[in-house]
Amino acid sequence: PFVDDLSTWYLRRSRERIKEGDTGARQTLYYILKTLAKILAPFAPFVAEEIWLKLKNEEDAESVHLASWPKIKKRLGFLAFMRFGLGKKEKVIDKMKTVRNIVTLGLEARQKVGIKVRQPLNLLKIVAEGLSDEYIEIIKSELNVKNVDYILKIKLGITKVTLDTEITPELKQEGDYRELLRSLQDMRKNQGLTPSDIVTLSVETSDAGKKLIRKFENEIKKTVLVSEIRFENNSGDEIKIDELLFKVKMV
Questions:
Q1: Which of 84, 154, 182, 247 could cross-link 204 (Cys pair, CB 3.0–4.6 Å)?
Q2: Over its length of 251 residues, how does the chain's per-residue pLDDT go in tens digits?
Q3: Distances from the Cα of 176 to the Cαs of 31, 118, 179, 239, 249, in angstroms?
Q4: Where does the record place the Methionyl/Valyl/Leucyl/Isoleucyl-tRNA synthetase anticodon-binding domain (predicted)?
């Protein structure tokens, strides 16, 4: 479905590119939304008009209802705009379908054993049709795995995936870091902070908690927009991650 393709896949995959001002990602989203407004106009005129008025430029029609109807192409899919230098857009779309199928199977495998996506795993084994390194990197990112053992599928059949669910101490520590990062980002959101708001973190925690933060200090500062992390007693919010307890205040 279009909404699923756009919202839960393209936008999520392109979020960082858009935030960083990537021209290709921004122009692709702009084109999609303007075209969507035109298609919606006969069925949802007010919603379509609101989208159009927020996006139109000086050369566009004053109203979406005065704009030209989009020209139909043989096969138009916005995933084709994800640039891998692979030639025809149909090939890109077909490869991405395979990638998304693998990701879906991998997420189902995680769910069956009760392991969250934020918890990194070491290995994913795949039996599927040929995919280049660019697509393998997407799979690794989506399923949060360090390595992919890839077996080329020779006969037609169902794609198979197998997850190595052993969680080493190193992987567990990284999983705890990701949980902490999510909680800190939620704190920023709940406090109504904007990307221009740089904060100082006051943290009260155990030695194990301090060790975790020190290991990933640079990543935390960059992602949560923190200038300094201080280990001190405070009256902030509690964050519990398994056996680790953090009391955190953003100032």
A1: 247
A2: 788 888 888 888 888 888 788 899 999 999 999 999 999 999 999 999 999 999 999 999 999 999 998 887 655 455 554 444 445 566 888 888 889 999 999 999 999 999 999 999 999 999 887 788 999 999 999 999 999 998 877 666 667 899 999 999 999 999 999 999 999 999 999 999 998 899 999 999 999 999 999 999 999 999 999 999 999 999 999 999 999 999 999 99
A3: 39, 8, 5, 11, 19
A4: 2-122
Structure token digits, residue 248: 């955190």
pTM for the predicted model, two decimal places = 0.77
In terms of Cβ atoms closer than 10 Å to its own Cβ (0-12, 13-18, 19+), residue 121 is buried
β-strands 145-152, 121-128 pairing: parallel
Question: For residues 151 and 145, what is the distance between their CA atoms, to the nearest angstrom?
Answer: 16
Confirm if 100 and 9 have CB atoms less than 8 A apart: yes
Tally the C-alpha atoms within 13 A of residue 247's C-alpha that lie toward its C-beta. 9
